[in-house]
Amino acid sequence: MKSRILGALIVFFYALLMYLLPYNYYHALVYLLGVFIIAELFTVSSQEELTFWGILLFSGVFYLAVNYSVILGALSYYYSTYSLVFHKALFFSYLLLLIPVIFSIFLLVASLIYYGKIKEGFFPSLFFFVYSTFGLISLAKLTKPYFLLLLALVWSTDTFAYLVGRYFGRRKVVPSISPKKTLEGFIGGSLFGTITSITVSHYLNLFNSLSPSLFLLFFLLTLVSQLGDLLESGLKRLFSVKDSGSLIPGHGGVLDRLDSTLTVAPIIFVVGGLS
Q: How far separated are the first and last CA of the chain, in Å rounded?
C-alpha cells in the first residue's frame, strides 16, 4: 500500500509540473513520457533492439507536431509557390496520415535487419506504437484547461470504477483479459466520471452550456477511457507480463498509468482542446 501511495504521489506531482510549467517544458515532459512508453513497449514484446529506432521515429514526428506552425511558416517563406498549401496545414495533415506507413516500413526493415524475420509480437507492438504516438501528440497539443479536464475525467473514472467494482462488483466484463474488472465498476466509473467531468468543465468555462449532448459526450469519453485500460491489459496478456514496467512504485510502468489517457486525449483534442 505504501508503494502504491508513493507511486500516486509521483504521478500527481509530475502532472502538477506539466500544468504549472510553460508550454515548452510541458512539451518536454510529454515527450519524456513517450520515450518511457516506447522503451516499455519494445521491452515487453522482447524487441529491445527496435527501441532506439522507435524513439527516433517518435522524436521526429513529435517535434514536427509541436512546432508545425514554425515549420510551416519557414516552408511558406522559402517555397512561396506552395504557401497557400502550407498555411492551410494540408502538408502537415498529409504527413500525419502517412505516420502509420512510415513507422511500419521503417520498423519492418529494422526488424528484418536485427532478427532476420518478423517476430511474433511485431504487429501488436507496431499498432501500440502508432496508437501511443497519436495519443502523446494529442496530449502535447492540449491547452492547459483541457489538460485538467482530461486528468479529471480519466482519474475519476479509474478511481470510481475501482471502488464500485471492489465493493459492489459481481459480473465480470472480460475475465480473460482483466479478471478484476466488473460490469458494476464499469458503469459506476462512467457515471461518477461523467459527473466529475461536467463539474470540472463548468468550473473551467470550457463549454457554453450544460446540454444533454455534453453529458452524453462525457459519458462516452468515460467508456472510451475504460476501453483504453482494457486495450492495454490485452497487450500485457498477449506478452504474458503483469505490468509494462516498474518505474512507478505500486503502479507498474508509464504505459500502465497512461493507457486511458492515450485513448481519450485525441478525442478531447478534436472536440476543443487544440492549442
A: 38
Give percent of the chain above pLDDT 70: 88
Q: Where are the beta strands (DSSP E) in 132-226?
A: none
Nearest CA to 159 out of 192, 199, 181 is that of 192
Could you tell me how many residues make up the chain? 275
Q: How far apart are CA 59 and CA 35, in angstroms?
A: 8
* C-beta separation of 6 from 250 below 8 A: yes
| Total H helices, total E strands in the chain | 11, 0
Residue 5 near residue 248, CB atoms below 8 Å:
no
The mean predicted confidence, pLDDT, of the chain is 87
Query: Cell numbers at residue 192, please?
Result: 461518477
CA 114 to chain centre: 28
Nearest to 7 by CA among 256, 241, 235, 179: 256
* Predicted structure pTM score: 0.90
Closest CA to 11 of 29, 24, 23, 27: 29
10 Å CB burial of residue 102 (0-12, 13-18, 19+) is middle
Domain count, the chain: 1
Residue 181 binned pLDDT confidence (cut-offs 50, 70, 90): confident
For residue 176, give the amino acid letter.
Answer: S
Q: What is the CA radius of gyration of the chain?
A: 20
Beta bridge partners of 182: 172
Domain extent for 192: 2-271
Q: What's the rounded Cα separation, in Å, for the pair 183 and 275?
A: 36
Q: For 232-266, b where at least 16 C-beta lie within 10 A, e where not — what string? A: bbebbebbebeebbebbeebbbbbbbbbbbbbbbb
